[in-house]
Amino acid sequence: MKKIRNTYLLLSLLVIACNKNNTASTTFNYDLIVEGGINTLNERQYIRLTKPAGLAELSVKPVNGAAVSVFDGSNDITFTEIGNSGVYTAILNNNNNYGEPYTLHINYQGKQYQATDVLTGVVPIDSSYIPLTIQQGSDFTITIPRHIFGVSFAQQWLIMSQGNSWDPSQFNAKYNYSYSHVFGTPNALNPLTQQKNILHAGLNDSLIIYKFSLSSAYSTYLYNVFQETDWKGLLSSTPANVHGNISGNANGYFYAIDVDTQTEAVKDINK
After folding, report:
1. 74 Cβ partners below 8 Å, 6+ apart?
2. DSSP states of the chain as a string?
3. pLDDT tens, position by position, 203-214
4. Whole-prediction pTM value?
5. Which of 210, 227, 215, 186 is nearest to 263 (CA)?
6. Which interval of the chain is the signal sequence (predicted)?
7. Any idea where the domains of the chain sit in the sequence?
């Protein structure tokens, strides 16, 4: 069973229903799909607007010419589209307004859409606890559980080999995120809850570690996406109808996330 590895595939599953008696896919008639949001790592922010896409489609169709802005608690910041890519960008100096909401406004073809997320502070990375295991042989084999359940604080992780980095403008990048859920596991014995990401590293290599905060609403959304994708699997007959925080006839999730990042020598992790 093929795993879902990137945001595009996750959002594709949000708009696809599989019929038990028909192998053809049906696309929900959303006006647009929203990806991206506000992060504290960079002042430049990115939001992508696309048309709903099915898994059979080779590329997403951008939404061009929308009026996009974000209210940061003090000002409305206007986003500008990069070419005809459907990716909208702006500099947001007030990107660390912790505990406060950020609100997205979209005007497209005379219709209004809105979304709000609250920026929650991330619990800093502690080198004594990083969710992975390491086996040493001729090199290091690093096993990262894709989902951990029942933690005190919901968070998202991205652990990569040295030389890589997270870029919020790269919406098609195949980032292997892992998730710590405050919710319990649906069934601890089911193999779909045991999915893992595997890395290999040399004796003197390092890992690039990102940790992202999740608001209560965003963590619930990601858990629901997990239940409709990794948990049930790509071939589930249940429609993957997970709705995000976008108002109107739109889907996806506009986030506000705090980001911590560290570079750790593999040999020093979890000692």
Report:
1. 94
2. -PPP-SHHHHHHHHTEEEETTEEEEEE---SEEEEEEEESS-SEEEEEEE----TT-SSPPB--S-EEEEE-SS-EEEEEE-TTSSEEEEE-S----TTSEEEEEEEETTEEEEEEEE-BPPPPPBTTB-S-EEEESSSEEEEEESEE-S-SS-EEEEEEETT----TT-TT----EEEE-SSPPS-TTSGGGG-EEEEEE-TT-EEEEEEEE--HHHHHHHHHHHIIIIIT-TT-SS------S--SSEEE--EEE-EEEEEEEGGGTT-
3. 889 999 999 999
4. 0.83
5. 210
6. 1-24
7. 7-122+214-258, 133-209+262-268
pLDDT in tens, 65-109: 999 999 999 999 999 999 999 999 999 999 999 999 999 999 999
Q: How big is the chain, counted in residues? A: 271
